[in-house]
Specification:
Elements (H helix, E strand, L loop, with lengths): L26 E2 L11 H11 L11 H11 L6 E4 L1 H13 L6 E4 L5 H8 L4 E4 L18 E5 L11 H10 L5 E4 L20 E6 L12 E5 L1 H12 L8 H11 L2 H24 L3 E2 L6 E5 L5 H10 L2 E2 L1 E2 L8 E5 L3 H18 L1
Helix pairs in contact: 1-7, 2-7, 3-4, 3-6, 8-10
Length: 354
Amino acid sequence: MSRFFSEKYRELTPYTPGEQPKDMKYIKLNTNESPFPPCPQAMQAAAEAAKRTQLYSDPECRELTRLTAELCGVAPDEVLMTNGSDEILNFAFMAFCDKSHPAAFADITYGFYPVFAQLNHVPYTEIPLNPDFTVNVKDYLGINKTIFIANPNAPTGIALPRAQIEEILRSNPNNVVVVDEAYVDFGAESCIPLIRKYDNLLVTQTFSKSRSMAGARLGFGVGCKELIADLNTVKYSTNPYNVNAMTQAAGIGTLQCEEYTRKNCQTIIENREFTIRELKKLGFAVTDSKTNFVFAAHPAIDGGTLYAKLRERGILVRHFNKPAIQAYNRITVGTREEMDALLGAIRAIMEETK
C-alpha cells in the first residue's frame, strides 16, 4: 500500500477471485464457468462488432435491453444491462444503502457482498445460515434493512422457493430486497414475475454461467421502472458506456440462440446429478444444489487436503478457508468427460488415504 492510498479504503479487504493459473493445463472446475463455448451466432456478432470499436458503444444497450426484456416478460424500462452482474450489485449498494439503510445478507454467501458494503461505507449485518446451510427466512422478516439474497446461494448451491422470498418482500416494504439469481437457470425459481407486485424488488442475473459469456462480462437487473431509473442515475454518474460493443453484440447473438442455452443447461443439470450420485457413493455429504456446481465434503479427508491433491493431478476446484465450510469444496460441473476425470482422481486419492 502506498502512502497516497486514501484512508477511506485502507481497511478494505478485496474480493478474491478463483485462481486462473498458467503453469500447466488444468481441468478448471473452480470458477463456475460454462464448459461450453458461446453459440456461433454470438461469436460471429462479436467479431463483426470488433470492426467498429473506434466508436463508442450504445450507452442504452437498446437492442440488447429489448431482447432481454422480451426473454424476461417485462418492459425495456424495467431492465438495466451492466458490466457483469457484479456491477449492478455494486450499483444497488450505492443506490439503496447508507447509514439509515444498512445492508443484510447471509454469513455464508457470495463473497462480494461484504466487499461492496465496505467499499461504499455501508454498515452491514451477516445473518447466520442454519447448520444445514439453508437460509432461515424468519431471520429476514421485518428487519428494515436492504437485503441481498443469492438464490440459489453460493457456495452452498441451495435455493429458496419463490414463495419464501415473497415473505421477505412483504415484511420489508420500505427496503429494497435484491435477489441475486446468477445460477437460477440450473433449477431454481426466478423472482422476476414478482417485480410488478413489489416495488422493492430488484432481481439480478448474469450471462456468465448459463450463457457461456463469463469472459465478456454481461449482467442485468430487473425491477420496477422507478428502481431501474435510480440505478441508471448511478450508472450515468460513473460509466455511461459500461457494456462494450462486442459484449452487446455477443449478448444479442446469445439471446437469439435460446434453444442452445437451454440444451446446455439441461446437460449441465444431468452432469450435476450424475456427479452428486457418484460422490455420495464415495461417502461425500453433498448439498441439494440447484446451480452449475456441487458443494461436497468427506468425513475422512479435509477439504483443503482434497483441493491440494486434486490440484497436483491437474484438476482445480474451489476451497474456502472460512471455518464453517472449510471441510467442503465447491466443484463446477463440467462436461461428462471432465466429471469422470474428477471422480477418477477422487477415487485414487481416497485409496491413498486409507
